[in-house]
Amino acid sequence: MRRGAGAASRGRGVIWVLLPAFNEEPSLAAFVGRIATICAASGAPYRIVVCDDGSADGTRRVLGELASSLPIEIIDHKLNRGLGETSRDLFEHAAEAAAPDDILVRMDCDDTHSPELIPAMLAAIAAGADVVIASRFRPGGGQRGVDGYRAFVSRAANLFMRVVFRVPGVREYSCGYRAYRAAAIQRAIAVYGNNFIQLKGLGFTCTLEKLIKLDLLGARFAEVPFVLRYDRKLSGSKMASSITTLGYLVMAVLYHWPWGGWRRTYAHLGAEAARGAAVPAAGDAGR
What we know:
alpha/beta, 7-stranded mixed β-sheet
């Protein structure tokens, strides 16, 4: 479904909204409707790609109904595979279908991420960023409906990530609400291959991994203030905290060790990618 030249001829990149969905029937229809309204108001063409990750409720039925009137594509997982594999399928699908000047917006579809933030994220991409992060830790950001313990854990986790991974200008490492220049994702998949999202089975670790892998390729980051609306969440939490914590620790080891870790393994690939040179997939590096 590659549509590159046709979209480029219209002079405006397509907005691809990527939604992982698992048992999101209660909020899905209204939430997708808000996304459609915001994207249509931008004047840009848009597509909504939803990966139904083995939902056991009416999520798939609702998606079918929405697809009759909105530009929605549905990826079906018959069984629940987790956020890592769902994210991989969404990003690989969009990277294959998008033109380099398109924008990929990844959101949760449980109504905790406000679509009204999309125009500010598009503006930051237009200003030169490759990745725009919705940040709770910028002035004007925050979170509602999150209990004190969870808020403390979230801040502690982000502090840990800032110390261990040190991405300049980034304060928010764990929020999945981001906008990406399609060219940056296409380059990352070309460089890393199937290892762009390597830690697929470790809960929400994939959200951090994408950020770190893009930083290793020299991506330019920006953040916009964001209020996480956990008070609007109607479905249950999908995060397995122990698995995700393990994933963060595994990533810390892989990033720094052994023998320089990912930083050394991928350094020359990032430099070649920045020059626009042809690069081997990461799995072929050093052969």
